[in-house]
Amino acid sequence: MAIPISLIIDDGAPLINVFWWHAAEAQKTEAPVQKSGEPVVKDVAPDFIRDFAGVISRHGIRGKFSVLPYPAGLGKISEGWPGCDKAALKSWVRTVREEVMPLMDITPEVLTHAKTLDLKSFALLDENERNWASHQTATTLTPYIAAALRMLNEAGLEATGVTSPWDFGREVEAEYQRAILAAMKEVSGRGRTWYFLHAKPTGTEFLSKVVIREGGDWLVSIVSQGPDFLWQTMETRETSAAYVGSIADLFLTEDGQKGRLAELFGAGIPIVFHTHWQSMHSNGRRTGLRALEEVGRRVGAVWGTRVRWVKCSELAAEIAGGA
To answer: Span 187-200, mean pLDDT?
Structure first.
């Protein structure tokens, strides 16, 4: 039987580079820089989403694409925010709905991927979402996740699962798991769902698993087992074909003999790996997206029908034993 393969893409947001907000907070400056010294770009050109959609369409790449419902605390993606090009925002959301969703599950990650949003006042709290989650319970996490799901629904982007910003929920994972299932059932009527929190880029034991099973309901933890090799493309101005090929080699060499994906394929387990929106954007150069396209080409050329690209929800259903 063909081995499932699935790509997880984190931090997707319309028109902005959410990594700028992470870097600005960490560096305590409004002019954050990459480790290379290059300024971190704050915006992402509207046409980048179409380039991305073209790559996954050409190579049949499937998996998960995060969409931040209230990116960086600026405003709802269904409404926009001060200074936002609302026509470009609507076009971005439409492209995700019409071109990305047929191939990729959509998840929130969770609301802002920055400061925590107060659901009553819509003010931003001092704590970022990761730190806030560490001292929450299912009672407080459920409405937060539900708000994220509703905001995506308002934009016509129904989620099938939930993604953690950073390691959101790790310290209270049992509570977090309950909250995910409760929020999904409340907003979308889904009693069978999944989430992405964990990554372990070494070893070949398959780690994704069912963490809750109650009657016909279940929750699956999808674990990435491949590093984000594209991340490094943000730190260099190098864009040559040779460089792009060298990054693709880390995933899968041209002959299919080496690379992290080859290790997982050789073990005969489902191949789950991840990257980030900013990793493909590469601080404006799009080098990472070129490398992803090369990986997609190689997967098809080397393995053909021995693998099958699947959405994360499809993989979760297989893990849970089907419908």
So the answer is: 97
- Position 1 scores a pLDDT of 86
Task: Please give the Cα distance from 160 to 224 (Å, whole number).
Answer: 17
Distances (CA, A) of 35 to 23, 122, 231, 234, 282: 10, 33, 12, 9, 13
Query: At 182, which amino acid appears?
Result: A
What per-residue confidence (pLDDT) applies to 161?
98
Q: What's the mean pLDDT when you consider all of the chain?
A: 97
Distance between alpha carbon 276 and the CA centroid of its chain, in Å? Answer: 6
Asked whether the CA dihedral 291, 293, 295, 301 is positive or negative, the reply is negative
Burial class (CB in 10 A: 0-12, 13-18, 19+), 180: buried
Distance CA 267, CA 250 (A): 17
Residue 303 CB-half CA count within 13 A: 26
Domain boundaries of the chain, sorted by first residue:
3-319
Indicate the residue type of 260: R
Entry pTM:
0.96
- Specify the DSSP element, H or E, that contains 274: strand 271-276
Identify the CATH number of the domain defined by range 3-319. 3.20.20.370
H runs (alpha helix) in the chain: 18-27, 48-59, 86-95, 129-133, 138-154, 173-188, 241-251, 260-267, 277-281, 287-303, 312-319
Calpha distance 14→96 (Å, rounded): 10
Contact between residue 160 and residue 62 where contact means Cβ atoms under 8 Å apart: no
